[in-house]
Every structure is written in structure tokens, then in C-alpha cells.
Amino acid sequence: MNLAPYMAQLNELADPAAVEKMQAYHKVDRPYLGVANPQINDLTKAWRAELSLTDRIALADALWQTDIFEARVAAAKLLTQARLRPDDEPAWQLIQSWVPDFDGWAIADHACMAAQKRLLADPQRLDVVETWTQSGELWSKRAALVATLPWTKQNNPKPEELDARERILGWAAGYLPVKNGILQKAIAWWVRDLSRHDPVRAAAFIEDNRATLKPYAIKEAARHMPDFPLEAPVAADVTAEDEAPASDN
Question: How far is CA 179 from the centre of its chain?
């Protein structure tokens, strides 16, 4: 795959004035071009239309290896599609190979959106995602939750979808207690999205893990449940009179 003409198209859209702002915002030391997300969308839409799946995968791989912010975003967008025919396994293999490279939320979230499509196409791939939860890398752990967000969205989940949902909630609970705000926010995000479709289960998760969820995570997880108590109910005081045994008289 000749990367040069595709990078030339990205470079044509570069905005040097935006680079410093992007560096300050993302706080990750890598090259930035200053290309806006809608512009990357337009490019990758055209590339998807003109390239075979094999060439798209090769281009995505080459773009990712540049470590340029916009190139990595474009790589993910090239593979964010519900159906990849005739065989999506090479795309899935490439996407999962990116996970150890995650070092910030923006690129990771774009790649996780591509992963979501491949997981929905074959939920057995959750076995691979579970290995991310055991990683020593924070961003890999977070990716396991972001990539599985589709399992928060079923209004009438099938038994196997409920099983997957419980499995993922188990991963989230397994991260606790964790002080790191990135993982706390990722857990809150997953439970917040779940609350739109299954508020009872979302509320139960918060209650079960209230002691180890940070207050800001509880608030975010319960954002769409206005009646949910953000603070644990205080047990009523028991007086000596309450504790005294009833008289036999």
C-alpha cells in the first residue's frame, strides 16, 4: 500500500494554527496536523468507496504506524462499518493489535468504535476483550468497556445478550476499587448508558459498588435516573428504648 497519496490528502487540510491547541487539549506527545474531524470523515468516506477491503486494511495499518493523530483517527474510521465483506477477521485482528498502543481517550475511542462493529458481528470475540481487562495498561482496561458499549443499549435483550451484559458488568466491578479517574469515568459511562435501557440493573450496580465508586462516578452513572439517591441512605438511630426487650407484663 502506497501511503503517500493518502497522507498528501491529509496534509492538504492541515491547519498549523490548530496544532498547538490540539496538543494542549489531548496532552499526548505525538504529531498533529490540525485537521478537523468532519474533514477526516469526508476523506475516509471517499477512501472506503474506492478501496477493496484488503486495501482498506493495509491502508489503515500504514496510517496507524505513522503515529500522527489524524492518521490514526482515519485508520479507525476506515474500519468502522457494520459489515466488512467477504471476511472481517483480518480487520478485527488489526483493530485488536492497536489496543496496546492506546495512550489517550480520543484515538482510543475512535478505534473502540471500530471494535464495537466487529464485536457485534461476532460476540464470541468478547473472549479477546476479556484479556484486555487483565492488562497492566490502563487504556487497555478502559477499552474493554468502551468497545462493549453496544451491550448497554438493548431494550429487549436476548438471553445471550443479557449474559454478555452481566459478564461486562463483572469486568467493571472487578476494576474496583480503583482510584484512577479514567477507569472510574469509564465505568460510570457504561452504567449511565445502561440506565437508559435498564435502569433497575444500573441502579443495582451502583448500590452494589457504592463503597468503591467515587462520588463523581456515582453522579455520572445516575445522571439519567433523577430519583436515584446519590448518597447512601443513613440508617435510623436506634435508641435504648428501641433495643429494650418487650415487657412480659
Answer: 19
Supply the DSSP symbol for 133.
T
Amino acid of residue 209: N
| Boundaries of every domain in the chain | 1-134, 148-231
User: Of the candidates 82, 83, 112, which has an alpha carbon nearest to the alpha carbon of residue 95?
Assistant: 112
pLDDT tens digit at each of 249 positions of the chain:
899 999 999 999 999 999 999 999 999 999 999 999 999 999 999 999 999 999 999 999 999 999 999 999 999 999 999 999 999 999 999 999 999 999 999 999 999 999 999 999 999 999 999 999 999 999 999 999 999 999 999 999 999 999 999 999 999 999 999 989 999 999 999 999 999 999 999 999 999 999 999 999 999 999 999 999 988 765 444 333 333 333 333
